[in-house]
Request: fold
Amino acid sequence: MDISYELYKVFYCVASTLSFSEASRQLFISQSAVSQSVKTLEQKLGQQLFIRSTKKVKLTAEGELLFRHIEPAIHMIRNGEAQLTQKNSSGGLLRIGASDTICRYFLVPYLNRFHKEFPDAHIRVMNQTSLGCIDLLESGQVDFVVVNAPNSRLKKNVYTSQVLREFQDVFVANRTHFPLENQELSLGDLTEYPLLMLEQNSTTSEFLHQIFEKQNLHLSPEVELNSNDLLIDLADIGLGIASVPDFMLFNAPKELFVLKLKDKLPKRQLVLVHNEQLPASDAAENFMHYFSLDEDAFSSPMFHAP
Reply:
């Protein structure tokens, strides 16, 4: 089917913004030209791609299907153009996907090291949950991601994963509000207390719900947040018992303690994930090389600078 790239580019802009006027602004063409391009593409494909109204634009089911295929293609083309452009410079573009927690407690020392060694490189870190990061990788918006595993969206037959280190999920509480330091609790015992957890669209929530379900326990958190740091803050003021990764505790408030569990939770992993079938930028290759050199850096009980 002979359809020009320009038509798909216009479709992508309208689909990603759900606005003909915004697409017109981004593409520096008139709104009528945008409308005509979309109409031409719909005629060539024999499908209606958008539902138009005076107030909003919505993708049809066919439009959503096309968008899922066009989005990664557009990002791949732009990434290829960027890599060719940056071949003439000493910097390049480093595109990473990671959660706020992983960025703060693991990646910052490596980003510092990379910035010192490649000061002309541009660094773009996109923050999402570990589940959302796989979507960034799939759509071609990043070169690689650093995420928690197990991860329900990680397709082993498509992506290559490198284990960076293991970590343990722990439950922490304020010793004044929850005098439980000398007790050993079961998971069933924990359900009797107000629990603070990450929200459900996270690998941590998935993991913990599965662990509790295996013991036929219903996990119903008192509070669900999207920040591990905020979970620690709320646990510190005695709002409840928080579930956090153990590597966050090296600088935790002194009033917090780790609860002793009769059933120790399985360890999880921090993994670097990328698609070997797609060429990575020189900057990404240089950054990922740190982890093949620093194998001993991950034996420490907490994340530290390389």
In short: Confidence is low (pLDDT under 50) at residues 295-306.
